[in-house]
Amino acid sequence: MRIDILSGVPELLESPLNHSIIKRAKEHGFVEIIIHNLRDFSKDKHRKIDDYAFGGEAGMVLSVEPIDIAIQSLQGERTYEEIIFTSPDGEPFTQGTANELSSKKNLIILCGHYKGVDQRVREHLITREISIGDYVLSGGELAASIIIDSIIRLIPGVLSDETSALTDSYQDGLLSPPVYTRPAEYKGWKVPDILLSGNTAQIEKWKMEESLRRTKNLRPELYKKLQ
Ligand code: SAH
Predict the structure, then answer these.
(1) pTM for the full predicted model
(2) Which of 10, 52, 160, 177 could form a disulfide with 210 if both were Cys (CB 3.0 to 4.6 A apart)?
(3) Ligand 1 pocket, residues with Cβ under 6 angstroms
(4) Atom of ligand 1 at shortest distance to CA of 112?
(5) Each residue of 8-49: pLDDT tens digit?
(6) Which residue, among 183, 182, 169, has the nearest Cα to 211 in the 3D structure?
(7) Alpha carbon of 112 to ligand 1 centroid (Å)
(8) In sequence order, what are the residues at sequence separation of 6 or more whose Cβ sits closer than 8 angstroms to the Cβ of residue 177?
């Protein structure tokens, strides 16, 4: 899988995309992530990529031209299945979207900034708009990092224990059961006996019951969908 990110503040993407699972996924060739600085595609002598909004709206807007040039140049090299714009008014991002995107070969993700991007970018160049939640960030870089993180861990082989992504919350419409590690007792706080029993069938039953209980209590609307 290859992901090209277009950003006016590429520094914001460095740490989230260069450690832990994503770092390993890149090193093992599961994913290639290329961060492009939009300023490199600006024709302006000061590498400007934004301008004032028409109509007197406060705040700067990312201009069409550098984004168009960047996307055209990438599309000249390969075919992209989706050109995604991160936006608070996009489709809500879910585990289902992450599953779907994890099977794509080439993706572009455009990060907005300031007031957003010129609407013509969205009308003519973008194939999909994704929101990570009903709140507003300063820029799309953190949203892109979240989308990419959740996609990459789903690529088969990226997580060392392959089944672990399948048992995560939302993957089957349920929240995960609680997890514990050693010591079995700390300050009198005990791990549930069942987990120490060695009875695999009973442990699996307990986990399912815990998942159902937590989903019913914490996310009743998800629980209703199961019935
Ligand atoms: N004026 C816009 C918000 C701009 S915020 C509005 O009111 O809708 C600047 C940029 O941050 C956006 O263009 C987008 O790329 C990113 N962003 C902000 N909130 C986001 C969210 N919830 N999900 C995805 N991207 C978001």
Answers:
(1) 0.96
(2) 177
(3) 86-89, 111-113, 115-116, 131-133, 135-137, 139-140, 143
(4) 15
(5) 999 999 999 999 999 999 999 999 999 999 999 999 999 999
(6) 169
(7) 6
(8) 206, 207, 208, 210, 211, 214
